[in-house]
Amino acid sequence: MEAEAAKYIGAGIACIALAGAGLGIGNIFGNYLAGALRNPAAAQGQFPNLLLGFALAEATGLFGLVVAMMLLFVV
Amino acid sequence: MAAAESGTGFPVDPMHQYEIVRMLPIELFGFDASFTNASMWMVAAVTAISVFMIFSVSSRALVPGRWQSLAELSYEFVANMLRQNTGNEGQPFFPFIFSLFMFILFANMFGLLPYSFTVTSHIIVTFAMALFVIAGITLLGLFKHGLGWFRLFVPSGVPIVLLPLITVIEMISYLTRPLSLSVRLFANMLAGHTMLKVFAGFAIMLGAIGGWAPFAFMVAFTGLEVLVAFLQAYVFAILTCIYLNDALHVHH
Fold first, then answer.
1. What is the pLDDT of residue B46?
2. How far apart are CA B142 and CA A25, in angstroms?
């Protein structure tokens, strides 16, 4: 295989990381909603934690994007 | 954004917006210290924050007006964040956390303006900030607790067999903190802005007939980008608070 082709295939594979980010974000919002429906009074107090968890989970997927970018433009 | 309409290429170059342009070439001791568009947007962010804070609180009204409310809101937001995460010992670091939060927020928000440059979409900028934060917090912890600070890596209540392994893992996780802190901000900014430009290219390619679909997506996505710009500034600041808390209170 040519090195150039392997680079593009590798970049594509690196984007699978976004599946994990999707799972994580869905998990966070789903569990928040489940908790909020059980105890609506406590939901507002946990909103900052929800956003923090969302951002942390999303960033994990973006690390995969950084790998893809490095394969395409740096290596 | 230079449209390379010639040939079959994509109409928009999504990476062109990250190009650094020398505006005022300066050579200092053999180093290239030119005033670039990145420097210009950093100066713009600092100027905007200073003007906003100084002018909005200059009236010092008992019943705040619109601008003063906004300034008090941002002050209380950061102050609450710091108090919840570090307690009273963290209060001397309020000016630092506030400047950090406001600078990242304004740099992210300015990046959303058309034809602007996002300072935080360059890893060297975010990495310099993250390294400064982590190095400062490590030194603070060492000065405050001496060698007792290393208890941070030895959690209590762990079986003695697992302790060497856990300590190594804790050390690795501590050492990757500047990396994860900087890459999180940089990657979010880079991915968002590149995606906006790619969809702008789709809108141009599909023309007047089919172009409305990517355009509508872009309008919605710009709203999400505003949220992300705020959220990433918040996450950077709150993680700094959490790390600061680790250095101030060492008991695992």
1. 93
2. 36
Residues of A in contact with B184 (CB under 8 A): 55-56, 59, 62
Contact yes or no for A72/A33 (Cβ under 8 A) = no
Q: Provide the chain B residues 202-241 that lie in CB contact (below 8 A) with chain A.
A: 231-232, 234-235, 238
B183 chain-A contacts, CB cut-off 8 A:
59, 62-63, 66
Q: Coil, strand or helix: which one is B34? A: coil
pTM of the entire predicted model: 0.83
Inter-chain residue contact A66 with B238, CB threshold 8 Å:
no
How many folded domains does chain A comprise? 1
Three-state secondary structure call for residue B36:
strand
Q: Which two tokens stand for residue A48?
A: 């900052």
Contact A63 B183 (CB under 8 A): yes
Dihedral Cα B70, B71, B77, B80, nearest 10 deg: -140
Q: Where do the structural domains in chain B lie, given as residue ranges?
A: 16-248
Q: Which helix (H) or strand (E) covers residue B32, if one does?
A: strand B31-32
Distance CA B186, CA A62 (A): 9
pLDDT at residue number B11: 72
